[in-house]
Amino acid sequence: MNKNTLSKSLAIVFVMLSFNLFSQEKEKPCKHFRISPVLSHTYIPTATSEGTQTIIVPSIGLDLEYWFSHKFGIGLHNDLELFNYEIEKPGDELSIEREYPVVVTLDALTKVYKDLVVVLGAGVEFEKNQNLYIVRAGLEYEIEFAENWDLAPTFFYDYRHKEFGTWSMGIGIGRRF
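RE: above sequence
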């Protein structure tokens, strides 16, 4: 057997082995789109509403996500807070009134461990008195309960630029397609 034939034979064996190795890794095809209605509550530590020092505001949301791969995606996360409230500014007699604010953020998504998703992004809280810029960080855990359906507990921290921060916890039902 000459040198040229031996190298061709080795190349063919290598290619066949590599196909065999990669074919054993049968990962489900990536469903790129995910939509999820979300019910959550937002804890506002500095808010006052008729004398109370803290309130918990119910909210509804709709998350629209595009996944580039099984690990990385982007999401448009939208929330409507279902309550009117005031925010006291520290060391200031003025307060900020908030009437049914709508929060819209564009977030980077990455799965760091199994179905644990880290969310980082920025956006705007739209409200008739004053719009506020937001920086968001959070976690979401997608628990698949049927093919392409998941239940996702969420936990987020939103910082409204130069104003106040909020914590929110919720649950979403997601559908991938």
